[in-house]
Amino acid sequence: MESIPIWVIAVILLIFFSGYMALRAMLAERKLDQQFIEREGKIYMERIREERIKRQRDHNGDMQ
């Protein structure tokens, strides 16, 4: 029974390593995307809150 050449084993190991690194990159990118979405959501909610306060002030000013 012949043994498997070392280069074949190396190629197989490199394929698995490449898959592992791709998975790590995908998870890191997903985490960055989530952080970006949360940051933009907070900015959006702050704008809504400021607009609500502005409308309340304008509405209260019209009443007087």
Question: What would you say this structure looks like, in words?
Answer:
The chain has 1 helix and no strands. It has 64 residues and is mainly α. The chain has a domain at 28-64. It is rod-shaped, with a radius of gyration of 28 Å.
Write the layout of secondary structure elements.
Elements: H1 6-63
In what range is the share of β-strand residues?
Answer: under 5%
Q: Give the termini distance in whole angstroms.
A: 98 Å
Mean pLDDT: 93
- Output the number of helix runs: 1
- What order do the SSEs take from the amino end to the carboxyl end, as H and E? H
> Shape, please?
rod-shaped
Category from helices, strands and their pairing? mainly alpha
What fraction, in percent, of the residue positions are helical?
over 70%
The major sheet is characterized as:
none
Runs with pLDDT <50, length 5+? Answer: none
Quaternary structure type: single chain
Radius of gyration: 28 Å
Would you count the extended β strands for me? 0
Transmembrane segments: 6-23
Pfam families: Spore_YhaL
InterPro entries: Spore_YhaL
Keywords: Membrane, Transmembrane, Transmembrane helix
Can you summarize this structure?
With 64 residues, this protein is mainly alpha-helical.
What distinguishing features does this structure have?
64 residues; transmembrane; 1 helix; single chain; transmembrane helix; membrane; Spore_YhaL; mainly alpha
